[in-house]
Design a protein that fits this description.
47% of the residues lie in helices and 18% in strands. By secondary structure, it is α/β, with parallel strands linked by helices. It is elongated and about 180 Å long.
Length: 451
């Protein structure tokens, strides 16, 4: 009910008074729907009532903190940059730990996603940290689709969370949230301008995750060149409508420092796993012939500012923006693809959408089945025609071979007859010759006897 004299329909299992939207309502005791009349309204914003003693709901923040501490937190960081630019080293420096470091080659045929999960604990707070590395990014000659594996991976994590939400039996409290909360984009310190590959990739990712650009190995660029490089980067990002993460300024406790840090982006950082002795102090830094670069010295680089903003001040905001903005955008698009809408005068329910999609799916299956059946009939008909054509060709070929065989047989018979006649003639000549020789021999013998 929205007015002082309207009625509402509710379902309940017990009798009592309920204050819903600042309205006191009387509810029936059975399980059926009941018409509830408004007894009194307290106005749109209600009214302030003084308490006569301690009630205890001021402990709600403590209860929430204790629950969150017991469950622990998830933080997923995507590191994007060329091989050897210092991604793993910076992660070790940020969390003061020695994570698994696998040396990757520059000869990778494509971009691969490498995910490592670590369980960290600081005080009583447990953090499940996932470091996702873009192995082989920027190492190929053809870099046209280098960003696609990154986008596919982020969408896959969104899809996993969405599928868990849509389950009938779901448990989002204990579900491992693998959505990317922040993307640390490592820029090559060219000192001049941002590369086309970086612009294209960040443009593809800015609607998927919170991007924080970082100038890696900033100790290779002079101070003046670094300031110019930062200004050029931000100008090109604005010119190409690339949206990067901005630290929130709505909280008064951190608004001023976050505003100052937004003006200092991108952060120029230096990473190192080595401890260097400077005077009597051992610091984490990089030693050169001309001196030492201390990574935690704000005069040398912005590493401390990055750690303060990323971990100590705005980690929860990164998680919240991921869920409220980037995941919500993905979820809205997916639900629209499924036909689920809640805008307009006639919102479509999930049941209606399911029935509609089921009918469309059955129609599609029927269409596919009809196409397959027709294709099968056509192929059988074509095969039958082909077999008949082959049969005719074989019959004609057989008839031709049979005629050739008969002609060849006739020719051979004639040749055989001719040979037989020739043999008979030769045999007769030989017999005549033998007879003549015999008669001649008899004549010679008769003459000899007469002498």
């Amino acid at each position: 009910a929205n007015g002082p004299h309207q009625e509402a329909v509710v379902s309940t299992q017990s009798t009592g008074y309920y204050i819903t939207n600042n309205l006191r309502m009387v509810v029936r005791s059975d399980n059926r729907s009941a018409h509830v009349k408004v007894l009194r309204t307290l106005g749109q914003d209600g009214r302030t009532l003084p308490l006569q003693g301690h009630v205890g709901f001021d402990s709600l923040p403590d209860q929430l903190v204790n629950k969150c501490v017991n469950l622990g937190f998830d933080m997923n960081i995507l590191c994007v940059g060329e091989t050897g630019i210092g991604k793993s080293t910076l992660m070790d420096c940020l969390f003061k730990a020695n994570f698994d470091d696998t040396v990757h080659s520059h000869k990778s045929p494509g971009v691969e996603i490498s995910e490592h999960i670590y369980n960290l604990k600081e005080g009583n707070v447990k953090l499940r940290l996932a470091i996702v590395d873009s192995v082989g990014y920027g190492d190929q000659i053809n870099k046209e689709n280098s960003f696609k594996p990154l986008v596919d991976y982020i969408d896959e994590q969104f899809e996993n969370y969405l599928q868990e939400e849509l389950k009938i039996k779901r448990d989002l409290v204990t579900f491992h949230d693998s959505r990317i909360h922040v993307c640390l984009y490592f820029l090559v310190p060219t000192g001049h301008s941002i590369r086309s590959l970086d612009l294209v990739t960040m443009k593809a990712l800015d609607k998927k995750c919170n991007i924080i650009p970082i100038i890696a190995k900033s100790d290779t660029v002079s101070k003046s060149e670094l300031d110019t490089f930062k200004a050029n980067i931000m100008e090109e990002l604005r010119a190409n409508d690339v949206e990067i993460y901005t630290f929130p300024t709505d909280d008064e406790t951190v608004a001023e420092v976050n505003k100052d840090m937004n003006d200092m982006m991108p952060f120029a950082v230096v990473g190192s796993r080595e401890d260097v002795k400077v005077g009597e102090t051992v610091v984490r830094g990089r030693e050169y012939p001309w001196g030492v670069v201390e990574i935690e010295n704000e005069l040398h680089c912005d590493f401390v500012k990055l750690r303060e903003m990323l971990i100590r001040t705005n980690m929860e905001d990164l998680r919240e923006v991921t869920h409220r903005k980037h995941y919500e955008l993905y979820r809205r698009g997916k639900l629209k693809q499924m036909g689920i809408t809640d805008d307009g005068a006639h919102p479509v329910s999930l049941q209606e959408t399911y029935e509609q999609k089921r009918a469309e799916h059955l129609d599609e299956l029927q269409r596919i089945e009809n196409e397959m059946r027709q294709n099968f009939v056509n192929k059988v008909r074509e095969k039958d025609l082909e077999l008949k054509r082959n049969e005719k060709e074989l019959a004609a070929k057989y008839e031709g071979l049979r005629k050739e065989n008969n002609e060849e047989k006739k020719r051979l018979d004639e040749e055989r007859k001719k040979l037989e006649d020739d043999l008979a003639a030769i045999k007769k000549k030989r017999e005549d010759l033998e007879r003549a020789n015999a008669e001649h021999a008899n004549g010679q013998n008769t003459k000899s006897k007469k002498k």
